[in-house]
Amino acid sequence: MDVRHYMQQLGQQAREASRAIAAADSGVKNRALLAIAEAVDAARSEIIAANEQDLAAGRANGLDAALLDRLALNSAGVDGVIEGLRQVAALPDPVGAISDLNYRPSGIQVGKMRVPLGVIGIIYESRPNVTVEAASLCLKSGNAAILRGGSEAINSNQALAACIRTGLAAAGLPMTTVQVLETTDRAAVGELITMPDYVDVIVPRGGKGLIERISRDASVTVIKHLDGICHVYIDDHADADKALAIAVNAKTQRYGTCNTMETLLIAERRAAELLPPIGEQMSAAGVELRGCARSCELLPQAVAATEEDWATEYLAPVLSVKVVADIDAAMDHIRQYSSGHTESIVTENYTLARRFLREVDSSSVMINASTRFADGFEYGLGAEIGISTDKIHARGPVGLEGLTSQKWVVFGDGHIRG
Amino acid sequence: MDVRHYMQQLGQQAREASRAIAAADSGVKNRALLAIAEAVDAARSEIIAANEQDLAAGRANGLDAALLDRLALNSAGVDGVIEGLRQVAALPDPVGAISDLNYRPSGIQVGKMRVPLGVIGIIYESRPNVTVEAASLCLKSGNAAILRGGSEAINSNQALAACIRTGLAAAGLPMTTVQVLETTDRAAVGELITMPDYVDVIVPRGGKGLIERISRDASVTVIKHLDGICHVYIDDHADADKALAIAVNAKTQRYGTCNTMETLLIAERRAAELLPPIGEQMSAAGVELRGCARSCELLPQAVAATEEDWATEYLAPVLSVKVVADIDAAMDHIRQYSSGHTESIVTENYTLARRFLREVDSSSVMINASTRFADGFEYGLGAEIGISTDKIHARGPVGLEGLTSQKWVVFGDGHIRG
User: Which of residues 393-412 of B touch A (CB under 8 A)?
Assistant: First the structure.
């Protein structure tokens, strides 16, 4: 296969289809989403059989248990895919919404209309349900999509791609609105991220290594999510109960997510009172503690943290703990080590809460809430294509709106400029 | 001079200063802007003398009249610079504005806060007043700036930079909040656009060649404005008076601006009635006409347009004219040749107006208005750092808001995720 030629063809087809999907009204897009759901339901046994092929190949290739787990798509997983499609169909359509429409002194009326970006390229790893999730968000936001899933999920992804095509055709939309790569050749990724004529934005989902590689090599804008080194700072004026609840929840509610707290910062004046009970609950949950010198005095179970610990996203039951002088020292530490994902302060002090909110430069900044809330569903976006740690275009959880842009619209009545 | 070392130092200083300016309140920023205005007024004779040095050097180097004209900064020009600073001081401060703050079912309250981007690099050509204009917009939006003006304006720019530093210091802000390059070495541009650790976004202002080169080589996001090949389409259902007024204004009100019409499209059924009077007014204004075969039949003064004409931004008293079958043919032509800047339809037909508005994929889409309105001031932005022909982050005229991003803010009361 000539990969470059193949990708160029996909790109041209996507660009062509992007015009039809951009002009499609909400009813047509929702019919397509529901028709895809029906097609997935009807093809349930084929999808599961294809997934079993992938799992068997994965086991033969020695994939580890975590990877096999992410790859697996059983009947309950298929139900989840169907439910996800119905949820996206139920979301409001962002396309065409006009805002800030005002008359200007010249007499023209000026506003902004939300419009699709065009063609979105999505590069992801093992989980096959991302194929349908990404397709549904692109479709609803009026974009064409080119999807490149993990090579280990190729059979599952092709089975799902067939259902997507069936649904698109049923709604009268071009089947090329969503194209799933049929090759596992890695060169295809290199082509996808360097076709600015055909692709408007790339959303990579996966490990930090993959995302850094794609960002470095892409000539197309990348909406990227690097890592989540999230902090909770327990301030002098923290309520003890809230501090304990938030610290424990932010670390232990789930370990492998990017919005999990990786470092706990605590004001010196509250450390002796609050670190021992927090440490106790962390240890009871099986969390390993790595502390600064002062933390280790107060937490006998802690080991000494190294410089590297402060800069590590553990994604595991490990927590680094540091006692700091005050909010300034806490914000200095955050500035130095945070990945700019999510930080939370626990305090009852109005002025310090306000300072933290304004001065901390992360995609989510919280007061008296668990970092685990940093999520598109919790924020009311209805769905999430990813979380951006960039500042340009989209920041934090990215929903349908993040896949759109705004153009200016001007209504006149023969107006000319004087 | 070691250019790399020099630029790294500027970058580090800008990053450091960006924290102070991001935290500065509106009053401090406005005091700085007004103090810069005072410093410019006080240094009026030094600025004009420096500019005369640049002009003399330019004449000696054989710069053409248009370039010398853009380079010139006389006393009236200095008044314009001062007035611009006062206008930016009077604009509302975008930083810190919280929007869409809503309670979620979990009990947390979620919203978005507008925040500065960080450090903006601006690369521009001969006009020295851009130095102060760009500095004022970055400052007001809470960003640090690194400015690289044209080498032919180096003395003027340094004189203005001294005033900017004076004003910043008077307001207690770091003088490194705005840094104007002291070297004309071209290698400095290459460094500036490849320092993602120190620069968050690049705004190039200048010719298409400069911008394409910067976009190609930058590793930092570029808010770019390529060209403006703008169209007016006179539809079957156009009001004749509006069509005539808009076509003439869109072409002749100014020739060298990016929002000037370069191609007039007209529906076949109205061509015989409307092209002759439009052509007459264009010819009277000294506009050369280049037409399709049908246009040339109706416009004896027109010459035949070549394929290249449809794709050319003339920036001059030249207009290409094409007779099309209907709105679909017009939109096909726009899709193929437009640079995505601004297009306008002249029609009294509700349905066609609505289709044009939705389907044309340009940064400004207008109904019954002159393309010349596509401008930050006319749109009410108060100021304009440039016009973006990109879809990502900022589209169309870019004002203070385009130099900001939004972070999520979450207010809780000890909330944890269940």
Answer: 393, 395-397, 405-412
